Amino acid sequence: MPSAEQIAENLALVKGHMAEAATAAGRPPEDVRLVAVSKAHPAGTAEAALTAGHRLFGENRVQEGEAKWPGLKEAFPDARLHLIGPLQRNKARAALELFDVIETVDRPRLAAHLARLMDETGRRPDCLIQVNTGAEPQKAGILPKDADAFIAECRDGIGLPVRGLMCIPPADEEPALHFALLAEIAERNGLAELSMGMSADYQTAIRFGATLVRVGTAVFGPREG
Questions:
Q1: pLDDT tens for each residue of 64-82
Q2: Nearest to residue 216, comparing CAs of 60, 19, 3?
Q3: Taking residues 85-93, what's their average pLDDT?
Q4: What per-residue string of b and e applies to 180-200 under the rule 16 or more CB within 10 Å gives b?
Q5: Which secondary-structure segment (H or E) carries 133?
Q6: Which residues, at least 6 apart from 98, have a Cβ–Cβ distance to it below 8 Å?
Q7: What pTM was computed for the model?
Q8: Alpha helices of the chain — where are they, by DSSP H?
Q9: What are the beta bridge partners of residue 101?
């Protein structure tokens, strides 16, 4: 686990690079926010980032979020937590209770289930639709050819609070092509939020319009599990 000082330095470095990339793209730096990905790191790691002033985090699993974040949110009430990993329907209620944004709405049954739970509980965290831009069979996400219809059904048909899109490009392909595709889908559907870009490619993602970048390793070091 890196020291609190190292985490604070890493945060400042990443945010500096983000600002440079935004400025180079002709965008205000404040238009891009850093989701610090604390998955597979202990609560103390996230706490060090919180103490350094950062407030926006991402977790992959509901169970890990439940184990780590209630105490952190109590200590830092303005902290905001994004679910950035796959969501199973049996964890949807717990996800609504804990997370402020669900970035991985990726299939009709999950979307319908979330909409019912939102009506039942009154909790309505913002949602992003995950698009499988590389059409990878092993990866979650709606296919690009189906994205427009799925967005319309989620937003207009069942009333999900859809704010944008997210993607994870194939590891062996040029990410810029996938970022451009996601931005194009978002633009034609009037969606403002684009969650794309990770430690290795977040500056490229900013060039293509990312409003959220999900960075873990560059902030917290290699994952511990």
A1: 999 999 999 999 999 999 9
A2: 60
A3: 97
A4: ebbbebbeebebebbbbbbee
A5: none
A6: 62, 65, 66, 69, 70, 81
A7: 0.96
A8: 4-24, 43-51, 62-75, 92-98, 108-121, 144-152, 175-188, 202-207, 217-220
A9: 82, 126
Amino acid at 126: D
Cα(74)–Cα(108) distance, rounded to whole angstroms?
34
Taking only the tens place, the pLDDT of each residue in 6-51 is 999 999 999 999 999 999 999 999 999 999 999 889 999 999 999 9
pLDDT tens per residue, range 169-196: 999 999 999 999 999 999 999 999 999 9
Token code pair at residue 103: 């970035």
- What would the 3-class secondary structure string for 85-130 be? CCCCHHHHHHHHHHCCEEEEECCHHHHHHHHHHHHHHCCCCEEEEE
Amino acid at residue number 204:
T
CA–CA dist 81, 100 (Å, integer): 5
Of the CA atoms within 13 Å of residue 128, those in its CB half-sphere come to 31
Contact yes or no for 127/117 (Cβ under 8 A) = no
